[in-house]
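FIELD: query
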Amino acid sequence: ERHEALEHCLTKLDDAGRALLEAAYGEEGSVIALAERLGRAPQTLYNKLNLLRRALAECVTGRLAEEVAR
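FIELD: result
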């Protein structure tokens, strides 16, 4: 259930947010390397990733609560 909720919530993100998550947790492997490649400050990416993770956590929690309520 949790995995399905996460998959659903990932589709709710905008393309840029999804791409950032995929790059940060995929092959790139390092936020610092990703920041250099994108020409951005690492802290900027850390902040954005934190917001994305928080949004996903809230979405997943809400989605699971909806399933329990049914």
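FIELD: remark
Helices lie at 2-12, 15-25, 31-38, 42-69.
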